[in-house]
Amino acid sequence: MLVWFLPLFLLFLMIGLPVFFGMLAAPGILLWLNGQERDLILLYRNVYNGMASFPLMAIPFFMLAGELMNRGGITMRLVEFSQAMMGHFRGGLAHVNVLSSMLFAGLSGSAVADTSALGSMLIPAMEKEGYTRKFAAAITAASSVIGPIIPPSGIMIIYAYVMGESVAALFLAGIIPGILVGVGLMIMVKFMADKYDFPASRTKASWGERGDASLKAFFPLMTPVIILGGILGGVFTPTEAAAVAVGYAILIGMFVLNTLKIKDLPDVFMRAAMTSATVLLLVGAAMAFKTVVSLSHTPEILAEFVLGLSENPLILLFLINLLLFVVGMFLDAGPAIIILGPILGPIFVDLGVDPIHFAIIMSVNLTVGLATPPMGLVLFVASSVSGERVETISKAILPFLAVEIVVIFLITFIPEISMTIPRLTGFAD
Q1: Please, what sign has the CA dihedral across residues 282, 239, 418, 104?
Q2: 351: Cβ–Cβ under 8 A, 6 or more apart, which residues?
Q3: Residue 429 falls inside a structural domain
Q4: C-alpha to C-alpha distances, 6 to 3, 25, 336, nearest whole angstrom
Q5: Cα distance from N-terminal residue to C-terminal residue, the chain
Q6: What is the rounded distance in angstroms from the CA atom of residue 274 to the CA atom of residue 39?
Q7: CA-closest candidate to residue 138, choices 106, 185, 78, 198
């Protein structure tokens, strides 16, 4: 009977119950009906136990660092740097949008923060240059999914915690896939720019102008270097690296750039706290949910079903990618990873897929889901920022989603794309 908790959970989602409550109510009801009061107590106790973790403290710190950098005007410096490097190309502002997302990813690791921060600046600027508002909103939403792929990444921290993997290994594995998504989007922009005669946003910058823009962006661009360098050098853990990022953001914003004021801090802390609380409550509920997954033997049942379809790992990876893509249309990346990771991960590890490789497949696929209709979160953020309807943005984003789907399959069937850097640095076999 306990195995029915998953269909009941899906039913709760369909009727609009928040994910957090659905993840606790579905297994709780079935444990109560099954007379398993002791397991019911364990379920709710694990909500706290799931949040009380040192590695998970990295999430609120990274979110706070992103808020501090955004409020401190660092985002503008990244855009100016991107403008100096790529603004002279046809479709220059669209290229700038993508490159800015890649750079911003190294600061916040959040697709929503990327869409909000960059969209508020670049969408009006692109519209002023002659782009349609729907195209500007679409490229902003499509490029924002790079945020959780290039490290640091909140989604990968969650996956590493839930599945017991190395955060550093996942961070390193996400570098090339994130760059590949960005390059793919730029190729699509170039194709569309030639076809629709998009304008260049400026004349080619002189080396002096590029040097000036590089100097202005130097301190923000050092953030991912400090984070990854410190982790890989054994100087600090990922959680300590996140705390260092916060200190660095305050130092740069308040004392180097003089763009962050003490009066700005309460609002910054409040925004970071609200976002972090949402994520951590979901993680706590998910760890409790994971307990019932084990009790119900759902992984074994699903493994038997999956292996009954085929024993060829390549075919199964193709099918799982389709499943994850559909799941990503309706469920946010974090909850989807928390729910499906413990179920799907062991199946593919037993089939010989490297656990880090599968983690990247799952993370990238569900991250792209943030930009897929009908429930893609960044579509709603882009709609809010641009004033364009979600349905209109959903149609305009399709060419960019096609590029991201191609990248997903490249990552899936060419493991070296994600595994080369972790292996070279000794974080994977």
Answers
A1: positive
A2: 311, 313, 316
A3: no
A4: 7, 11, 13
A5: 41
A6: 30
A7: 185
- For residue 201, the 8-state DSSP code is S
- Take residue 90 and report the two structure tokens written for it: 């046809």
Report whether 239 contacts 167 (CB < 8 A).
no
**Are the C-beta atoms of 148 and 106 separated by less than 8 Å?**
no
Whole-angstrom Cα distance, residue 20 to residue 15?
14
**How far, in whole angstroms, is CA 87 from its chain's centroid?**
26
215 vs 398: CA distance, rounded Å? 37
The number of residues in the chain equals 429
In angstroms, the CA 369 to CA 378 distance is 9
User: What CA–CA distance (Å, rounded) separates 330 from 334?
Assistant: 12
DSSP alpha helix (H) spans, 147-237 = 154-163, 167-196, 207-232
Do 170 and 359 form a contact (C-beta atoms < 8 A)? yes
Burial 165-188 (b: 16+ CB within 10 A, else e): bbbbbbbbbbbbbbbbbbebbbeb
Backbone φ, ψ for residue 277 (5° rounding): -60, -40
Q: Taking the mean position of all CA atoms in its chain, how far away is CA 351?
A: 26
Q: How many domains does the chain have?
A: 1
Q: Which domain holds residue 39?
A: 2-424
Mean pLDDT by 10 residues, the chain (429 residues): 65 77 77 72 75 80 82 80 83 89 80 81 85 92 92 88 88 94 95 82 80 86 84 82 89 86 90 82 74 64 71 87 83 78 85 93 92 81 88 93 96 95 86
Is residue 328 assigned to a domain?
A: yes
Listed residue (137, 161, 157, 151) closest to 108, CA to CA: 151
How far is residue 304's CA from residue 298's CA, in Å, rounded to a whole number? 10
Using CB atoms within 10 Å of the CB of residue 274, give its burial: 0 to 12 exposed, 13 to 18 middle, 19+ buried: exposed
Model pTM score: 0.82
